[in-house]
Amino acid sequence: MKAVVYEIKNTKTNERYVGSTTLEDFENERRWKKHRQHLSRNNHDNTTLQKAWNAYGEESFEMNVMEQCTSRKAAYVREQWYFDNMWSECHYNILPVALSPVIAYAGNRKGKTNSVAHRKAISEGNKGKELSQATKDAISLANVGRPVSAATREIHRLNSTGYEHTQAAKDAISVALTGKPKSEAHKKNMSIAQSGSKNGMYGKKQTKEARAKMVKNSGTRGKPTSDAQKAAASAAQKLRWANAPTLVCDHCGYETKNSGMLKRWHQDNCKKNVLISTPV
Predict the structure, then answer these.
(1) Same domain, yes or no: 129 and 25
(2) pLDDT tens digits for 3-28?
(3) Domain containing 124 — which CATH number?
(4) Does a structural domain hold residue 144?
């Protein structure tokens, strides 16, 4: 039975998935339909190809013949040749091994666990394989807003515990986050995560040297206040004063919004205060 080695090609990035099938299945598009069916349902075995499909959409992919073979076995041999000699161009393949359709296309494996040997083979097969920046950006965009389960977050936390970034990585992260606004929900989560005993400074006091360093690094000491900053501070103070509650002296009915003056001086020294106006 004649067979073919085919590619599923991303027309936007020229990245490809390489496989093999019978000539009949290729010509009547049975193989292509099966791939599209699982990709459209988001349950394709090949997660790399699935992510690219989700990112670029069905219209960005096509299936082409790379070469025809005299038999199915010959197609396996030629497919393996591509893996052995052109693996860096097989961007969406996970394993560098040509397998039979029964093994290579096992259907939906969601919920199933790969063996240690299988995971190791996948890891080795993907080492050195570099996705294009366009694919990385598209996958990133496709995952924006996608919820992450608590179990997945815990796995990420455990995997990163004790990991030390290089200085170059720290600098890159700092540059990427500089000026990036945080949502109110993000700010609230950060506050909760660092409150009480969770805070690294809980129960501790800053040393004199640390306080001096913080003041020095604040960037404001010794610098003149701009007119814009003065105007903003003035507007904020006026707004706070306008919204402040009106307080009344218990003795004379004097009204003021200056709570400090009323509590710390006027109320205790009011001339209508019986305790101080009545001679002993």
Answers:
(1) yes
(2) 999 999 999 999 999 999 999 999 99
(3) 3.40.1440.10
(4) no
Question: What is the domain count for the chain?
Answer: 2
In terms of pTM, does the model score above 0.85? no
Is 27 inside a domain boundary? Answer: yes
Contact 122, 95 (CB under 8 A): yes
